[in-house]
Design goal:
Length: 282
């Protein structure tokens, strides 16, 4: 069986190039604001890439940088300012936050129709009910685009990881496409038995090369969300890529897999929020 690598970078490039064409003749450009708190290196790299992509597409982009000792009041004030800014269509609060700040206190302060990450309770509730909210979480949305031409209905889909950012929304989106979904996590028993039954395996646990070939079935489709750094400084995923290659039918690499899709879907969400606000669909 010939293994095919799903090139997320190529698919993401098509999305961003299409957005650029949609935006180039607009008098008022879609506006994206990103809030980052502290000096977490990984977060800063992510934010840099998001802002860079937004500007390359032609969006109006604002970066709000707050200190590590930022108070709740300071963050509330910045969110309120952006909520009221008519030039801003999407607001992204970069996670994780410093330990003294709880994300739950702030995500619902972002207006649902400016919630570009889809983390506001309104948008997550809509997703849980199988209805359309203003935005869908970017990484699960990117995953579903990678699986766009795959027959999902009736397939066994296993998700490693139950986060609100990836695992849970991805499960809901797969359910909405009539997959049979299992979410596995750190307390799951007989994990290998579960993963061996997966037609589609989505890995989002942050454990370097955790999934080996004996854990998967022949012909499995693997979406690797993990981003981990090896001792030599190179990036790797939650899946041992070289080890599983002989058994999978489709697989995303790390890098150039899910990561670029997340950023592309963030841009797509920004544009969709812009259109909704422009049309008064609030």
């Amino acid at each position: 069986m010939e293994t095919k690598i799903i090139n997320g970078s190529e698919i993401a490039k098509k999305i961003t190039e299409n957005l650029k064409k949609q935006v180039e003749n607009l008098d008022v450009k879609p506006g994206l604001a990103v809030i980052i708190i502290g000096n977490d290196e990984a977060s800063r790299i992510y934010v840099k890439n998001k802002v860079k992509t937004a500007r390359e597409i032609g969006f109006y982009s604002v970066l709000k940088e707050l200190p590590s000792d930022c108070t709740k009041e300071m963050l509330f004030s910045v969110i309120e300012e952006l909520n009221n800014d008519k030039n801003i269509n999407g607001i992204l609060l970069q996670l994780p936050l410093p330990k003294h700040l709880k994300k739950e206190d702030f995500l619902d302060k972002i207006l649902p129709y400016k919630d570009v990450d889809g983390f506001n309770s309104y948008n997550t509730g809509k997703l849980a009910r199988g209805e359309k909210g203003y935005a869908i979480p970017c990484t699960p949305k990117g995953i579903m685009k990678l699986l766009e031409n795959i027959e999902i209905e009736g397939k066994n889909a296993v998700i490693l990881g139950r986060s609100n950012i990836v695992g849970k929304p991805a499960a809901l989106m797969l359910l909405n496409r009539n997959a049979t979904v299992t979410i596995a996590h750190s307390k799951t028993k007989d994990l290998e038995k579960i993963t061996q039954n997966a037609d589609i395996l989505i890995c989002a646990i942050g454990k370097k090369e955790f999934v080996k070939k004996e854990m998967i079935k022949q012909g499995a489709i693997i979406i690797d969300v993990g981003i981990n750094r090896k001792s030599d400084g190179k990036l790797t995923g939650d899946v041992d890529f070289n080890d599983v290659m002989e058994k999978v039918s489709l697989i995303t690499p790390v890098p150039k897999g899910v990561g670029p899709m997340t950023i592309a879907c963030l841009m797509e969400n920004t544009y969709e929020l812009y259109l909704a606000q422009k049309r008064g669909i609030l």
